[in-house]
């Protein structure tokens, strides 16, 4: 207890020096790019920028799947020459219910339906109820589909954000169906929100023979331009926007248009419908709205086309951007937005740094006045503590927010508690008549238990906060949790070593307590 | 200066009979907590954006901007703001809008925040939007649930930890004291009208952690003295333990207080409420270690920890 071997001492000093080194990247630029230059990231509240929480509409996802499953089921029964009196889709329960025409055909129909290809292994479950055959999507498949859709959405969101030129965006999954988007420097996220609020699913359909009424296999869709006009278009998708190779905003005859280039499949599909349907109108549908419905003048076989519409330079380039990035598997909704302007960020950094400096200074002075030499050692340990917290944050390239800075300061306030406990204990031992050496020894020993106990409870409370908290609060919990660990080192090892070394050098008759 | 401490809170030989004030302490504490619980139901906490949902927009302008003028701008655009206030300085205005009622609130909330921004920048191009937050209903409900869960789990884990490290009487009186501390802090929040949001939950948890720490140190000494002085009546023993740890209790409270003080003074709008609650919690937590936790232990442990006290 009262002896620190040379190696142990070097170890302690080494840890402190390494920590100091790890902090350096926060204050200087990297001299060469080859060095691992890890820095603490400033949170959006300090840097300015926007935080967006997006939720994937999993209901639409399920709806789309059920819709196509319904079509497949019809097709399967049709090709097996089996009839049905009713097919009903239940989006809420995730089921399709088929009522066979005759009870005698039920077994055959079920056999035919069970041959449907699942999109995910184990996707479909079959049961019967009141003479109906029920196909339901399994819970696991619904979850797997959502998970996969979020992964795909993240990729598409990243492409869309990247093409806006945003610097340093961070995109991450959160929970089952959400995506967190952080955009440093963008304090007005309106354009980004608009870009992400578009699914950008583009499809090409033929307009129905009677464009004013929806018949079987066609649907009335609204026109994007114009006052509530509608057109009946065929449900069958002739060309899918997924088969686009490129899209760009260009000028044509003095107007902004979006030019398209199809991949091989898209080009083939496009060539076929334009060859077979010369003179008929077709509709370009984006997210359920008709952007334009030109008449096919002649076969287009080059795999290229343009969309005309009432575009501005901005809207044409945004549409091209969305088409290039690809369609989202389901709509994304922004459910939370937090935006901070740049000057508020700077003011917050200022507030944090001033508070940290003043708080640190007050605690240092308090320890000097109340605990003399041992207080000085506590102050040295306190400084090392601050350096180590910063070092660990830098090492993990963690984020630091204003509440995080508050967490550091409170940690420092709490950290000296261990020194106070040790000092008070030593003082008691001295007044109980112990010699300095014994007083130090039993002071350290007896205080250690108490220190571990009291830090353990604080540790538990903040781990809970980290688990259940979000954003800035999580950062607060993080800095405090890191701080508790560094505190144990700086008080139980470092400041004790300072005292032990001082004692070994001076061998005082009286302790400064 | 280094050879001897210049200052001390209490002389080491001073013995204060804290246990004499145990009834007064418990009664005052119980009354304050009951009043706080009443305040919690009526008028209730001032829920912040995190838990209430809706829109907050903060603006800054070079010229002086009155809330009345800002309200005119908003009303001209048919925006119904719940409150429009100056905060910090006459250049800064804070606009709060409640969550729209009915379905589709997520989409409407997001449209609303953009609409407010557009309206303000069109009316006054020089105004800077410093903060624009919009939280939808489902998110705020979830944040609230998580905040409560964090509090409940923390309390639970503290109970388990103390139970594991000490005897049952210690754990129970510690948790009862913590709940009393917590209710008073909530009462403080209601009275001061500080917004209750996630940052406040963080403050409450930090107070919990700090206050527990304080109790653990006193209890630790009680346990040690129970072994050391086999014959001493529990009441005297508690007084002795509190007195022995008094300089430490006051010292640590002071350093945490000193650390939180600049946050309250310079921390800006995000941290002022947080730090004020911290300061209140430190005072409450420290006094409850002495006047509540120890008397409770005396009440509960009279029979089991020491007979004939």
- Please summarize the sheet with the most strands of chain B: 4 strands, antiparallel
Name the chain pair with the biggest interface and residue counts per chain.
Answer: A-B, 81 and 83 residues
Contiguous helical run count of chain B: 9
Q: What general outline of chain B do the C-alpha atoms trace? A: elongated
CATH topology group of the largest domain in chain A = Multidrug efflux transporter AcrB transmembrane fold
Strand order of the largest sheet of chain B: 3-4-2-5
Strand content of chain A: 15-25%
Report the C-alpha radius of gyration of chain A, rounded: 34 Å
Q: What is the count of structural domains of chain B?
A: 2
| Helix proportion range of chain A | 40-55%
Mean pLDDT of chain A: 89
Shape of chain A: elongated
Structural class designation of chain A: alpha+beta
Say what oligomer this is: heterodimer
Structural domains of chain A: how many: 3
Number of strands of chain A: 19
Helix-residue proportion of chain B: 55-70%
- Please name the fourth-level CATH homologous superfamily of the largest domain in chain A: Multidrug efflux transporter AcrB transmembrane domain
**Distance between the ends of chain B:** 45 Å
Q: Strand-and-helix sequence of chain B, N→C?
A: HEHEHEEHEHHEHHH
Properties at a glance:
heterodimer; A: 513 residues; Multidrug efflux transporter AcrB transmembrane fold; 3 domains; 4-stranded antiparallel sheet; 51% helix; 21% strand; B: 309 residues; alpha+beta; Alpha-Beta Plaits; 2 domains; two-stranded parallel ribbon; 6 strands; 67% helix; elongated
Description:
The complex is a heterodimer of chains A (513) and B (309). In chain A, a hairpin with a 2-residue loop joins β13 (244-252) and β14 (255-262). In chain A, α9 packs across α10 and α11 (436-468) runs antiparallel to α12 (471-506). Chain A has 12 helices and 19 strands. With 513 residues, chain A is an alpha+beta fold. Chain A has helices at 6-23, 44-47, 58-79, 106-113, 139-162, 190-196, 264-276, 313-325, 342-395, 402-431, 436-468, 471-506, and strands at residues 41-42, 49-56, 84-90, 95-100, 124-129, 132-137, 170-174, 178-184, 202-206, 218-222, 230-234, 239-240, 244-252, 255-262, 282-286, 289-292, 304-311, 332-340, 399-400. The radius of gyration of chain A is 34 Å and the shape is elongated. Chain B has 309 residues and is α+β, with helices and mostly antiparallel strands. Chain B has 2 domains: 18-48 and 140-304, Multidrug efflux transporter AcrB transmembrane fold, CATH 1.20.1640.10; 54-135, Alpha-Beta Plaits (2-Layer Sandwich). Chain B is built from 9 helices and 6 strands; from the N terminus they run αβαβαββαβααβααα. In chain B, α5 packs parallel to α7 (198-228). The radius of gyration of chain B is 25 Å and the shape is elongated. The model of chain B has no long low-confidence stretch (mean pLDDT 89). The chains are: A alpha+beta (513), B alpha+beta (309). The interface between A and B is large, with 81 and 83 residues.
């Amino acid at each position: 207890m009262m002896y620190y071997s040379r190696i142990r001492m070097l170890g302690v000093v080494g840890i402190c020096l390494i920590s100091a080194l790890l902090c350096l990247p926060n204050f200087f630029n990297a001299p060469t790019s080859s060095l691992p230059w890890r820095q603490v990231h400033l949170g959006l509240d300090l840097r300015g920028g926007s935080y967006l929480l997006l939720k994937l509409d999993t209901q639409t996802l399920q709806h789309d799947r059920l819709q196509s499953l319904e079509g497949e089921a019809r097709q399967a029964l049709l090709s097996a020459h089996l009839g049905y009196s009713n097919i009903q889709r239940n989006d809420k329960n995730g089921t399709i219910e088929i009522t066979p025409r005759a009870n005698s055909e039920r077994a055959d129909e079920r056999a035919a339906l069970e041959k449907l290809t699942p999109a995910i292994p184990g996707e479909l479950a079959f049961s019967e109820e009141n003479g109906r055959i029920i196909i339901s999507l399994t819970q696991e498949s619904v979850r797997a589909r959502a998970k996969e859709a979020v992964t795909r959405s993240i990729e598409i969101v990243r492409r869309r954000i990247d093409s806006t030129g945003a610097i340093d965006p961070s995109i991450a999954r959160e929970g089952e169906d959400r995506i967190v988007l952080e955009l440093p420097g963008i304090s007005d996220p309106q354009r980004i929100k608009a870009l992400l609020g578009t699914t950008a699913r583009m499809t090409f359909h033929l307009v129905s023979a009677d464009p004013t009424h929806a018949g079987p296999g066609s649907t009335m869709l609204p026109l994007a331009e114009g006052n509530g006009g509608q057109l009946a278009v065929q449900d069958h998708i002739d060309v899918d926007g997924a088969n686009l190779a490129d899209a760009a905003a260009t000028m044509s005859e003095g107007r902004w248009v979006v030019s398209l280039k199809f991949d091989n499949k898209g080009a083939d599909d496009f060539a076929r419908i334009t060859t077979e349907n010369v003179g008929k109108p077709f509709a370009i549908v984006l997210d359920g709205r008709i952007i334009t419905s030109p008449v096919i003048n002649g076969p287009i076989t080059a795999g290229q086309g343009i969309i005309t519409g009432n575009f501005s330079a901005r809207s044409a380039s945004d549409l091209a951007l969305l088409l290039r990035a690809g369609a989202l598997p389901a709509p994304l909704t922004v459910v939370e937005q937090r935006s901070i302007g740049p000057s508020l960020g700077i003011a917050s950094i200022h507030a944090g740094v001033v508070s940290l400096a003043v708080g640190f200074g007050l605690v240092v002075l308090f320890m000097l006045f109340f605990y003399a030499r041992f207080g000085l050692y506590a102050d040295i340990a306190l400084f090392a503590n601050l350096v180590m917290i910063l070092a660990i944050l830098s090492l993990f390239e963690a984020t630091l927010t204003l509440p995080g800075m508050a967490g550091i300061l409170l940690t420092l306030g709490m950290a000296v508690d261990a020194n106070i406990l040790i000092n008070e204990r030593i003082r008691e031992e001295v007044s109980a008549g112990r010699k300095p050496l014994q007083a130090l020894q039993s002071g350290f020993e007896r205080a250690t238990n108490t220190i571990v106990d009291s830090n353990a409870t604080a540790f538990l409370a903040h781990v809970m906060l980290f688990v259940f908290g979000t954003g800035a609060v999580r950062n607060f919990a993080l800095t405090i949790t890191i701080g508790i660990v560094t505190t144990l080192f700086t008080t139980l090892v470092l400041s004790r070593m300072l005292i032990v070394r001082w004692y070994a050098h001076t061998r005082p008759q009286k302790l400064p307590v | 200066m280094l050879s001897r401490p210049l200052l001390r809170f209490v002389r080491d030989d001073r013995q204060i009979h804290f246990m004499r004030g145990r009834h007064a302490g418990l009664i005052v504490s119980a009354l304050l907590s009951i009043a706080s619980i009443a305040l919690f139901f009526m008028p209730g906490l001032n829920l912040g954006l995190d838990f209430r949902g809706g829109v907050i927009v903060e603006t800054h302008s070079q010229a002086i901007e009155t809330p009345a003028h800002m309200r005119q701008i908003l009303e001209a655009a048919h925006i119904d703001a719940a409150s429009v206030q100056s905060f910090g300085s006459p250049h800064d205005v804070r606009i709060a809008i409640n969550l729209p009622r009915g379905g589709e609130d997520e989409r409407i909330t997001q449209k609303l925040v953009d609409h407010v921004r557009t309206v303000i920048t069109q009316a006054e191009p020089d105004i800077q939007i410093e903060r624009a937050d919009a939280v939808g209903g489902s998110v705020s409900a979830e944040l609230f649930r998580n905040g409560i869960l964090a509090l409940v789990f923390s309390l639970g884990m503290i109970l388990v930890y103390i139970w594991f490290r000490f005897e049952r009487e210690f754990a129970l009186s510690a948790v009862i004291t913590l709940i009393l501390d917590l209710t008073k802090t909530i009462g403080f929040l209601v009275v001061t009208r500080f917004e209750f949001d996630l940052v406040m939950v963080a403050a409450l948890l930090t107070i919990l952690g700090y206050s527990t720490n304080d109790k653990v140190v006193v209890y630790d000494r009680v346990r040690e003295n129970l072994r050391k002085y086999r014959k001493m009546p529990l009441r005297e023993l508690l007084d002795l333990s509190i007195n022995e740890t008094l300089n430490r209790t006051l010292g640590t409270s002071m350093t945490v207080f000193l650390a939180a003080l600049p946050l309250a003074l310079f921390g800006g709008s995000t941290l002022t409420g947080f730090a004020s609650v911290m300061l209140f919690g430190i005072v409450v937590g420290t006094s409850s270690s002495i006047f509540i936790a120890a008397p409770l232990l005396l009440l509960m442990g009279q029979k089991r920890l020491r007979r004939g006290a």
